[in-house]
Structure formats: C-alpha cells, structure tokens
Amino acid sequence: MSVRIATWNVNGINPRIDRVTGWLQSAAPDVVCLQELKCTPEQFPQEKLAELGYEAAVRAGGRWNGVAVLSKLGLEDVTIDLPGQPEFDGAVEARAVGATCGPVRVWSLYVPNGREVGHAHYEYKLQWLEALRQVAAEDASGARPFAVLGDFNVAPKDEDVWDIAKFDGATHVSELERTALIELQKSGLDEVYPRALKYDIPFTFWDYRMLGFQKNKGMRIDHIYGNAPFTAAVKDAYVDREARRPGKKDAPPSMAPSDHAPVVADLEL
Fold this sequence. Notes:
Belongs to the DNA repair enzymes AP/ExoA family. This is Exodeoxyribonuclease III. This protein has helices at residues 17-27, 46-50, 120-140, 175-186, 228-233, and strands at 2-9, 31-35, 55-59, 67-71, 76-80, 96-101, 104-110, 146-151, 190-191, 195-196, 205-206, 218-219, 222-226, 234-239, 263-268. By secondary structure, the chain is of the alpha+beta class. It has a 7-stranded mixed sheet. The chain has a 6-stranded mixed sheet with strand order 5-6-7-8-13-9. Helix 3 runs parallel beside helix 4. The chain is globular and about 45 Å long. The model has no long low-confidence stretch (mean pLDDT 97).
C-alpha cells in the first residue's frame, strides 16, 4: 500500500485556499498535517476539502494558531491537544491534533515560536516540547507506523539556517531547543530527512521580507519524526519548494503562497 503523507504550515488556510486546494490536487497526498490555520472551527473550509476527498480533524483557535489532519484514508481516534499540554496565559492553545489515518497514526503540531531566549514564551516552548516527548514515547514503541509532523520552530543544526551568524543568541537555534529535539528522538523516533528539489539544504521556510525566497535565505524548521515502522516504510521524502514560489502578479490573493513549503514523505506499507 502506497501512502503519501505531508506536513504544511499554510499561514492562514482561507486567504490561501486556492493555493492549498491546487496543491492538494497536484501533489495528491493521502494524509496532510496542516498548521497555522488562523480560523475558527466554523470558518474552516470543510466542504471545499471534502470535495477533494478529505475528511478533516480540526483544532482551530481563531485568529492565531490552529492545526488539522486531512485524510483520504479515514479518521479514527482523534485526539485534541497533547495530553498534559501546557498552557500559556491561562489557555491551552490550538497547537496539536492527533488521528489514526488507515494504517498510520499521526500528530499535526505547531510548536510555539518562543519569541526570545529567556522570554516566558521560550520557557513555554520548552515545556511544550517536553509534553510532546512524553506523548511520543507512548506511541513510538508500538508496531503501528507513527509520526509527529509539523512546524517545530527549531532548526536542528547550524546548516539548517541560511546564515548561522545572523541567529546568534536567537530562538530556533538555541542549545535547549535543539536538545529538546534530540530528547524527542530518544523517545523512539527518527527524523525523516527530506531531499531538496533545489540548492543543498532542504529549507522549509523563507521570510516574505527582503526577497527571502528568491535569495534562498531560508530555515529548515518543518519536520517529520517517525518510529521504526514508519521510517522503514519511507521510500522518498522531499520539500516541495515550488509550492512556496510567489504567484503571478495578476494572480488572485487566494493564490498567494505561505511562507512555508510542504514536506512530503512517500511510504510503502
């Protein structure tokens, strides 16, 4: 059984709905983990996605955050929020949703940004990653293919940012954040490292400002971590950089790109 699984921070699903649905039709993934929906549950474009054959498990929080799992393989055992997920400013944010899609169990994750090293949001980020590690440890040892996918807001290595000198003392590259990813892997997960369709490093994010995409000033912060049954089934993985390419000047706003590109994994189960 061939299964294509992807993760994509869409940076607002409704403003970019034609870009999203166009990519779903061309790439034809079976399971998609989406992040940064930026909509309420009522605003989520359920009908448009259903027309393409997708069921959706959605954790939407309004103006910010929001995650979803889209599946053509069915949806079972949907879990909203990580068990033990920490709060920020007294609220559990819309950053995690898990679901079983046919033979595979996945989590769609939008890890907190952290803002600045030492900021309360940075501490929250580390606590959030620890909660994820604990959840992953429970599923990673099973025989069922299992993966956590999403925008981790962490670049694991120096080469995963376009110029490490520009990030001195910043979030996304700090030792504690990177250590949290190492601890996540110790729970029984390995990274599915994607190939790049262009350039050497498969960046997944480029800032809209200062021609970041055109100059390839990117970061690799969107990841797939799977257990042994999952990673053993991976036959290919890549970053679909073309999905990040700016649209034509006369294109409608709904065709504007996200600042992230999808990460895609092809499995043979």
